Amino acid sequence: MSASTMSARLARYSSIFAISLLAVAELATFARAADDDAETPATAPVETKAPRAKTKVDSAKREAWKKERAAFKKKLKAWKNAKKYRGCRFQSPKKFLVRSSFVKNNQIQPKAHQRAVRYRAEKYGYLPGFHLEKYAGASVGEQVTGMRFMGLPIQIHERLEPALICVEKRIKKLCKDDDEKYTAKGIGGLRVGNTYRGGEISNHLFGIAIDIDTGRNPCCGCVDPWPDHPLCKKPAKSIYERTALTKCWINSFEKYGFYWLGRDTLQDTMHFEFLGDPDRILP
Ligand SMILES: [Zn+2]
């Protein structure tokens, strides 16, 4: 091997090495952001490794995804740059995506669950290690964006950026009275480790879930020590008494297709997930 071939190879290997290091650092950041979440209905959290497997995405799906993404970015840019705030469409969560549609009496319903997972993979991308490549044109990781929500940094799926902008606008406009306002101190979005066991896939992995102040908004239906939280122990007439979040905040999310997991048997009051149609967010 000539010296020049050798140095070319070395350069190539070192750049591959640098990219791998970056990827590892990135994963570590996401994992840390996720530590304090509570969404585990059974005993111990199960970390699902996200191997960087060689994935086979159908080339036609890949091309279609590229086109759709370019169109979305163009539309988002125009929306952001519009002189007048144009808002988002109001929408409700799709029923088949709501957790209670595919988990009944703590049992996962395989067919219903698969339908919900497939929809998420088609809309948001595949997750390495979960065998969803056949449904998607890209991975979730390729579609993550960083933004601020109520002044706090968050990593989420890029398709949701306008929805969170709209939620924030609504909160700032409507949630001003003493019994309506709330100040978020810590939030979390995208994660790479699955905290569910039993085959369920957290919407945090798709980058479409957000947790707000885990300490003040407990998950009373989760595993110990969650049920020991003072808000879980006191008698309550409704779930709203088990969270520091105000109805005004919860309503603001729900207007735009987010589902509040406080309504689920998990009573995960910190957690909102977008279960609407991402193609309908922008007007
Ligand atoms: Zn959560």
What's the short story on this structure?
This protein is 36% helix and 10% strand. The chain has 283 residues and is an alpha+beta fold. It has a four-stranded antiparallel β-sheet with strand order 5-6-8-7. Strands 1-2 form a two-stranded antiparallel ribbon. The chain has a two-stranded antiparallel sheet with strand order 3-4.
Strand order of the largest sheet: 5-6-8-7
What is the number of helices? 7
How many E-type strands?
8
What is Rg?
A: 20 Å
- Gross morphology is globular
Q: Cofactors and ligands present?
A: zinc ion
Structural class: alpha+beta
Percent range of helical residues: 25-40%
Would you give an account of this structure?
- The chain has one domain.
- The strands form three sheets. It has a four-stranded antiparallel sheet.
- A hairpin with a 2-residue loop joins β1 and β2.
- 36% of the residues lie in helices and 10% in strands.
- α5 runs antiparallel to α7.
- The chain is of the alpha+beta class and 283 residues long.
- About 10% of the residues have low confidence.
- The termini are far apart.
- Zinc ion binds next to β6.
Q: Key features?
A:
283 residues, alpha+beta, 4-stranded antiparallel sheet, two-stranded antiparallel ribbon, 8 strands, 10% strand, binds zinc ion
Secondary structure layout:
Blueprint: H1 3-34, H2 59-81, H3 99-102, E1 103-104, E2 107-108, H4 110-124, E3 144-149, E4 152-157, H5 161-174, E5 187-188, E6 209-212, H6 230-233, H7 247-255, E7 258-260, E8 271-274
Antiparallel strand pairs: 1-2, 3-4, 5-6, 6-8, 7-8
The chain binds zinc ion.
